[in-house]
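Onboarding guide, step 5: your first structure request.
Type a short instruction followed by the sequence, for example:

Predict the 3D structure of this protein.
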Amino acid sequence: MKINTLFRYSMIFLIIAVNVGCDQISKSAVRKNIEYHENIQVVGDNIVLTKVENSGAFLSLGDSLAPWAKNLLLTAFPSLTLLILLFWLFSHNPGKWALFGMCCIVGGGIGNIFDRMVYGSVTDFLFIQYGFFRTGIFNAADVSITAGILVIVGQQLLRNR
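The system replies with C-alpha cells like these:
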C-alpha cells in the first residue's frame, strides 16, 4: 500500500470518527443534563437547547410506520447505503472536498443509525430561529450531513464555473 493511499484511508477514518464522536458526545451530554422538552436559551430565543426523541426520520417523517417498515426504511436501508458509500470512498478518489463532504455525510449517518439501533430513536436537541428562518429540532449528526451536502454542492458549483 502506498503512503498516499494509507494517508487517504487514515483521513477518511479520522473525519468519519470525528463526526461520529462529536455527535455521540453531544447527545450523551444532552441525555444526561437536559430534561425532555426543557428549553435552555443559548442565544435569546434564537438558539435553544431542548431534548426530544425522534423515532422517525427528518422532521419525524415515518414516525407512524409499522415497526418492520420503520426498521427497513430508517435503519436497514440507510445502513446499506452507508456501507455502499464507504466502499465508494475507499475505491474512488473524488477529490479532497468531495471526499471530506462524503465523510461528513457518512459520519452523521452512522451517528443517527447508532442511536436508532441502541436507543430506538434519535436524540435531537438544537433549535434555531432567526427572523423568518426557523429549523426543526436537530442534532450534530444532522449538522454533519447537511455540511457534507453543502460542501459537495458548493464544490460542484465552483468546479462548473
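Each response can be followed by summary notes, for example: Residues 3-159 form one domain.
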